[in-house]
């Protein structure tokens, strides 16, 4: 009789586990906190093929490593003495060379003591968790007339291996120098350079404006106000650009992988789909309009877009191909599906991505993507959250806990079962 009861209990547990498995049709998603206690984190990235580590950019000038659920005490890189930090200035971008596993090169975007944008290359040391701060090779310095609108995102194109650099319009408000439309300056542009070319960098021969005079050879696209995070879809290689608006409209711009460059995204002629300067008859022709815009205001108050990524991970098949983005002020998170022509399934994800347990995601400074293609949300207040399925299949460690519970149940050790169940809950809900 006792064996029969034990078997019934075991069967019930297995049925419970089976019911906890994700649905093939509608997986619920949430977030779990994976790092805390950081100093103004603004970005997350992993080198290609590095499935053990996530690198976290801290705005004051440090890069930290998250490995096996813990943030390593020793920074990967510390250049706080070279970085002018405050407001929109600081260490803002990080990109690993496509051949990082062999050459150890990575690139950063920061504002220096003069407030100007610096694009530099560094090298890792013999310790893969520590970079050499003395290995800096400055590739490009861009004068900034004001302290805001520095852009800061850098990323290698998955199709061409060139480095893309997102530059804001130089700051103040309303682009007083009309720099985003000025072909003789690098501000308000998307730049594209060859880091493997002759020092300090080469110009890709197929850049759209290569040749004498203006537009400058580095320019890939123009008409940007402050591209606060752009990203490439790792499957289609399409480019998504989140451009922060002036007073009324935030926008998501798009460039298909087949583009040969040269797009004009409209600022300061237009803000989103609306005339800005001049206030009417502002489109001279040839502008590329955003694929999505949303207005300022509302409740909660919206004011500044933080761009994200197209989900290409494997843990949540239901959201494959959805582009995630957020608003810094309202702390809202959305996703949509875009096929190159039609935008569908615009979804407010804020409530379902709330981590719970007394935690909250505030002041979303960025998103991030690891080597698996899984997505992270960066809270500039010091935390990093990972988007995960709610009913995630048990890991090997969790199965160990479950099997132990089954064995203890057959022995009738109820107290030990409860202790094991508590440990399983801890595994599912890390707080580091």
Provide key terms for this protein.
432 residues, mainly beta, Neuraminidase, 2 domains, 9-stranded mixed β-sheet, 27 strands, 12% helix, 33% strand, globular, disordered N terminus, disordered C terminus
Shape: globular
Radius of gyration (Å): 24 Å
CATH homologous superfamily placement of the largest domain: TolB, C-terminal domain
Distance between the termini: 45 Å
Strand content: 25-35%
Structural class per helix/strand content? mainly beta
At CATH level 3, the topology of the largest domain is: Neuraminidase
- The mean pLDDT is 90
**Counting H and I runs of at least 4 residues, what is the number of helices?**
4
Low-confidence spans = 1-25, 393-399, 424-432
Could you describe the 3D structure shown?
- With 432 residues, the chain is mainly beta.
- The strands form 6 sheets. Strands 1, 2, 3, 4, 5, 6, 25, 26 and 27 form a 9-stranded mixed beta sheet that branches.
- The chain folds into 2 domains: 1-21 and 393-432, no CATH class; 29-392, Neuraminidase, CATH 2.120.10.
- The protein has helices at residues 2-20, 100-103, 396-411, 414-428; strands at 29-35, 41-45, 53-58, 62-67, 70-71, 77-78, 91-96, 105-111, 117-124, 131-142, 154-156, 163-166, 189-193, 219-222, 227-232, 239-243, 249-255, 270-271, 274-275, 292-295, 305-306, 322-327, 333-338, 343-348, 364-369, 375-379, 383-389.
- Helix 1 (2-20) runs antiparallel to helix 3 and helix 3 runs antiparallel to helix 4 (414-428).
- Strand 23 (333-338) and strand 24 form a beta hairpin.
- The two termini are 45 Å apart.
- Helices cover 12% and strands 33% of the residues.
- The longest helix is centred in the first third of the chain and has 19 residues, at 2-20.
């Amino acid at each position: 009789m006792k064996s029969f009861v034990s078997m019934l209990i075991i069967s019930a547990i297995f049925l419970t586990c089976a019911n906890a498995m994700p649905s093939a049709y509608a997986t619920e998603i949430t977030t779990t906190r994976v790092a805390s206690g950081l100093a103004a984190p603004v970005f997350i990235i992993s080198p290609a093929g590095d499935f053990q580590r996530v690198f976290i950019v801290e705005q004051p000038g440090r890069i930290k490593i998250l490995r096996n659920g813990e943030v390593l005490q020793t920074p990967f890189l510390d250049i706080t003495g070279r970085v002018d930090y405050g407001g929109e200035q600081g260490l803002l971008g990080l990109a690993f060379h496509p051949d990082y596993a062999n050459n150890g090169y990575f690139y950063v975007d920061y504002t220096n003591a003069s407030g100007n944008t610096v694009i530099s290359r560094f090298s890792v040391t013999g310790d893969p968790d520590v970079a050499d701060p003395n290995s800096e090779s400055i590739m490009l310095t861009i004068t900034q007339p004001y302290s805001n609108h520095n852009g800061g995102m850098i990323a290698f194109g998955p199709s061409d291996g060139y480095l893309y650099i997102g530059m804001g319009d130089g700051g103040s408000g309303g682009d007083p120098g009309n720099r985003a439309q000025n072909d003789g300056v690098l501000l308000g542009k998307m730049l594209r350079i060859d880091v493997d070319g002759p020092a300090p960098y080469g110009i890709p021969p197929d850049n759209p404006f290569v040749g004498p005079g203006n537009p400058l050879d580095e320019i890939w696209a123009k008409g940007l106000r402050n591209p606060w995070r752009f990203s490439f879809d790792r499957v289609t290689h399409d480019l998504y650009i989140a451009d922060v608006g002036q007073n009324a409209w935030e926008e998501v711009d798009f460039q298909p992988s087949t583009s040969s460059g040269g797009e004009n995204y409209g600022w300061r002629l237009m803000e989103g789909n609306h005339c800005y300067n001049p206030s009417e008859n502002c489109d001279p022709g040839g502008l590329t309009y955003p694929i999505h815009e949303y207005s300022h205001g509302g409740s909660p108050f919206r004011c500044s877009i933080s761009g994200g990524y197209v989900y290409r991970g494997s843990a949540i098949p239901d959201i494959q191909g959805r582009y995630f983005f957020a608003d810094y002020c309202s702390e809202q998170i959305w996703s949509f599906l875009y096929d190159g022509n039609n935008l569908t399934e615009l979804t407010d994800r804020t409530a379902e991505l709330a981590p719970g347990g007394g935690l909250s995601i505030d002041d979303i400074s960025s998103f991030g993507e690891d080597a698996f293609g899984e997505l992270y949300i960066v809270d500039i207040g010091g935390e990093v959250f990972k988007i995960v399925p709610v009913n995630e299949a048990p890991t090997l460690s969790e199965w160990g806990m479950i099997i132990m519970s089954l064995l203890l149940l057959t022995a009738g050790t109820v107290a030990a079962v409860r202790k094991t169940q508590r440990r399983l809950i801890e595994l599912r809900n890390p707080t580091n």
